[in-house]
Amino acid sequence: MTDSRIPGGTPAGEGRYGEDLFEPERPGESGRVDAGALVYDPFTTRRLRMLGAGPGLRCLEVGAGTGTVARWLLEEAGADEVVALDRETGALASLGVPGLRVLTADLADEGLRPGTFDLIHARFVLMHLPDRRRIVSRLAGWLSPGGTLVLGDAVELPDVLDTGSAYRRTMDAMWQALWTAIGTDISAVPAYPRFLREEGLRNVAAEVCCPPLLPGGPQARFWYETWSRMRPALEATGRVDSDVVDAALAHLDSPRLAELGPGMAMAWGQRP
Ligand SMILES: C[S@@+](CC[C@H](N)C(=O)[O-])C[C@H]1O[C@@H](n2cnc3c(N)ncnc32)[C@H](O)[C@@H]1O
Questions:
Q1: Which of 133, 156, 212, 260 has its CA 20 to 30 A from that of 200?
Q2: What confidence score (pLDDT) does residue 12 get?
Q3: The whole model's pTM is what?
Q4: What single string gives the DSSP state of each residue in 11-56?
């Protein structure tokens, strides 16, 4: 089932992550992804550890990006094997960690059969894929008995009393531009626990982490890089002009920065 909701009344874009936005060959793209990983890896790895990440496990890291979680699973948690799946595996190929198997594949490929796993983790991937509900189903189907599926994606707790700051307008323009370009949608993220339950998983639970947005910190750097490379698309929404984007970028570096930035919801469940 394709998510057919239409935020703002416009149809979801049919472009693709890595082709129409966030092209991996663009200078600085892996640094942008790494800045996000630096912010969220402590939350992700803590939760994976609590869910039993450790020796003896065969893991699938979905949309592995630069491979920080795949590497942690092998080097810190001691997993036996990690399959790191991504459409773009240039950054993963050079990791050279024993036990890592790099799989260049498209999650949207219905014929994809990577095997079965004790732990499957996908972070900041499903939100960018219009077929996310169907993909949750397929990921759940790749779990071994007793295996755990962990989904992490962005959530926002916007200050609804702020209707006009450069920060707010630019963040809103970003979500709209992502939707219009590639169909990114975070509105279904709070439904992930229900999706996991619908797939017959047990011990389903979820949590939200909102790391602080500090001037010049890794999270601010991530948004700075994201907004900078999306600038034409942000301005094309009509919500912001060049001066507003400049002001929002400067705000990310300013001691006056005082925002509850976007966070990450993690939902997990276990195959009986
Ligand atoms: C925002 S990055 C997140 C990377 C990593 N999971 C992390 O949290 O650091 C999204 C990743 O998903 C990958 N991706 C996007 N669409 C994909 C698809 N259809 N199939 C496989 N990977 C995809 C991208 O290439 C990119 O590495």
A1: 156
A2: 82
A3: 0.94
A4: PPP---BTTTBS-TTSTTHHHHHHHHHHHHHHHHHHHHHHTT--TT
